[in-house]
């Protein structure tokens, strides 16, 4: 019988004050996650964080270089956002990203044509907003969790409420029988091979339409 799996994902890092405690919690609960990093946040200070994430079995993917609305960029600017981020990830951790999450989940035809990676969205709980309490984040993730889904969270600077929420989310979902996997592992276990240039923003593994129905 196939196990129940979820892909926890985190945007906007790496940041020492959030990504490191998240990695501590993932280690404590033997959980993997995928970090959609911003190229401009990969520095000499944060490179060891990326290497640690890989050592713990996590995955590193692209969230652009500077988090612009990429639908407003030229073709050259779109390509630069992707290539510069790839260069920094590879230089820091020796891997290339396999997936891309568009900033603001804003997309257009040019992005699908130019970016050679499958696009990932996810089920979020507005945890980038300080007004959303840790308790609301916990409730939201527990409500949206389902086998094969991608959960969208943020390890942006100062986001201590998501760190606090994870302390409750991880054991609660494990008690419900979930295992936490990377995005690559999610697709592999579900037998899905996402291809670049498809007009799909994946929020769950078996998705075939551009957007998930219940987002």
List keywords for this structure.
single chain; 215 residues; alpha/beta; TIM Barrel; six-stranded parallel sheet; two-stranded parallel ribbon; 7 helices; 14% strand
Please, could you describe this protein's structure?
This protein is of the alpha/beta class and 215 residues long. It has one domain (6-119, 131-202): Alpha-Beta Barrel (TIM Barrel). Helix content is 38%, strand content 14%. It is built from 7 helices and 8 strands; from the N terminus they run E-H-E-H-E-H-H-E-E-H-E-H-E-H-E. The strands form 2 sheets. Strands 1, 2, 3, 5, 6 and 7 form a 6-stranded parallel sheet that branches. Helix 5 links the parallel strand 5 (123-124) and strand 6 (149-154). Helix 1 (16-28) packs parallel to helix 6 (160-175) and helix 5 (134-144) packs parallel to helix 6 (160-175). It is globular and about 45 Å long. The model has no long low-confidence stretch (mean pLDDT 97).
A few lines on this structure:
By secondary structure, this protein is of the alpha/beta class. Helix content is 38%, strand content 14%.
Q: Looking at the chains present, what oligomeric state does this protein adopt?
A: single chain
| Largest sheet properties | 6 strands, parallel
Terminal Cα span: 28 Å
Helix fraction? Answer: 25-40%
What is the CATH class designation?
Alpha Beta
